[in-house]
Amino acid sequence: MLKRLYLINAALLSTHEVDSAYWKEWDLFHLPGGLPGFLLLHIPLFLLVLWGFDEIVCGRRRGLWFSLILAVSGIFALTVHGLLLLRGGTEFRTPASILLLISVGAVSLAQFVATVRAFSSK
To answer: Which sequence spans correspond to the domains of the chain?
Structure first.
């Protein structure tokens, strides 16, 4: 179950990052480097997500830490973007963006619970 949740969440968060590029998130959060910096930042992030999945598949305890970080990242993304939307932000207001954020939040919460349970059983 945890493998599937991790994989689904990784796909949802990756898609959210594609959406973030559309909305020029580097401007929204005042990140240096513009689009090139944003793209370069995502290379190690995506490598970490893939490494985490490998750790989960191999059944290593370290994979649970990767899973926890990914789940918390999804909850954080939903929270930050939800607050921006409530404050009147114009970004991430399309139905697809909102559905994606809600999906990220729901799967992240399920993954968080599953990861905590897996920690307690090891």
So the answer is: 2-121
